[in-house]
Amino acid sequence: MKERSGSRAAVDERYAQWKSLIPVLYDWFANHNLVWPSLSCRKMPCSLHHVTLQLMMLISGCLLTGGGHSLRKLPTRIVSACTYLNRQVHLQTDGSVPNTLVIANCEVVKPRVAAAEHISQFNEEARSPFVKKYKTIVHPGEVNRIRELPQNSKIIATHTDSPDVLIWDVEAQPNRHAVLGASESRPDLILTGHKENAEFALAMCPAEPYVLSGGKDKSVVLWSIQDHISALGDSSSSPGASGSKQSIKTANEKESPKVDPRGIFHGHDSTVEDVQFCPSSAQEFCSVGDDACLILWDARTGTAPAVKVEKAHSGDVHCVDWNPLDVNYILTGSADNSVRMWDRRNLGSGGAGSPIHKFEGHKAAVLCVQACQDNIFAVIFSLCGCGCFLCCFFIPLFFAIILSFGFQWSPDRASVFGSSAEDGFLNVWDHEKVGKKKNSNVPAGLFFQHAGHRDKIVDFHWNSSDPWTIVSVSDDGESTGGGGTLQIWRMSDLIYRPEDEVLAELENFKAHLASCAPKN
């Protein structure tokens, strides 16, 4: 008990230090309290813009039975699942209200607009005024994962604790109220093919309307929803809408139509934890699992592995991502506390090959946080007569051992990616920086660490239309006894822009301050 309270105190101290640095670390930040835990988050693009604001759409899935909910990406909306209830109600519900998918709009302040004092003043226990609920869908079961269809952002796929993948047209689905006894919304399609539960591994193809899934049956399953996508996207009705025409023909109007797989792929010896399509091909994809394997597949050559790396890590491999800007590079993340980067051109058919980079934290006890300081700038705050200020700063960089996490390549830069972990940190890495900084206590390639969450970060997503804006979500149940925290944030561009460019801007600003200073 003493050990746990000591750990909690350390986390609180770290959080307080991080919060004091928000004005210098971030260009924009919003904190949104979730009553229920969340397992995933995504952002969707939106076409509405303002002089100082841009609109994102969020979708999230709320789990009211002791599990998690999910946030996933759609084109300018954020996808997040939660029910906005009082914390005291949460402690007593235990399934008294249904699981939900909530679609919400989020106002994101444009770069270099937000005032520093504004973004640092927020209540951790409150909902953000920037996040506004748009629609609720009553989900059948827990929402473990959400993915959007790149060709049609209104179409999303969800994973729950079952063998099926559920497909939803979020625009056509009716708005529901999450009340006791509410009937479940009916998905627009059900993808079948798994023999056991498929809970987490889920991907949708950037090239064609294909869906990929992995599960406890050790298989990877591929579907095409090409025959249904036009009906889903163009219809104004849904099988879940009472009294309306169906958007898809089905023999039984009370049941959602089902789609059989294009292929079932076998090669793993344990649960498949994550899957990902090659960004340029619907026929090529990869998977990772609890057998510590990374497998590359090519549906054109059959259902056997094209390349199998037997020991990609020394522990279970939890996540995989394919570089959208350079399809030769693949990332894997594992319970062995490391992220590894692979070049598929160097992987032989017999599983030969080694990662080209290993990204690791320091060796420390699990969930133990140490502060490592790296001089990025010196601390100077100066006010001039015209009300301007110069802000150069010294950033304490926290890091800890990585247990179980997700990560994703940046949609804007081929060398940049982020990783989130059970240590409560979201790290942003640049593999081109590896080896360029000598005698540094910071892990190679790490150039930013988001420390705004006080418990494990279960998911995050880059904003493709505003590449340095990230939405992240944490499961805070263990630390606060509550639900979760959703954060939307954008780091200061002084951190990632070229050093000479930043120094030139600061010198110009310094000269401006000098010219504004009162003359004796």
Automatic annotation (TrEMBL):
The chain crosses the membrane at residues 376-403. The keyword Zinc-finger does not apply. InterPro entries: Histone-bd_RBBP4-like_N (IPR022052), WD40/YVTN_repeat-like_dom_sf (IPR015943), WD40_PAC1 (IPR020472), WD40_repeat_dom_sf (IPR036322), WD40_rpt (IPR001680), WD_repeat_RBAP46/RBAP48/MSI1 (IPR050459). Residues 251-264 have a biased composition (Basic and acidic residues). One of its GO terms (cellular component) is nucleus. PROSITE patterns: WD_REPEATS_2, WD_REPEATS_REGION. Keywords: Chromatin regulator, Membrane, Nucleus, Repeat, Transmembrane, Transmembrane helix, WD repeat. This is WD-40 repeat-containing protein MSI4. Residues 232-247 have a biased composition (Low complexity). GO terms for biological process: chromatin organization. It is found in: Nucleus. It comes from the Eukaryota. Residues 232-264 are annotated as: Disordered. Pfam families: CAF1C_H4-bd, WD40. Its main location: nucleus. Residues 13-47 form the Histone-binding protein RBBP4-like N-terminal domain. It comes from Zea mays (Maize).
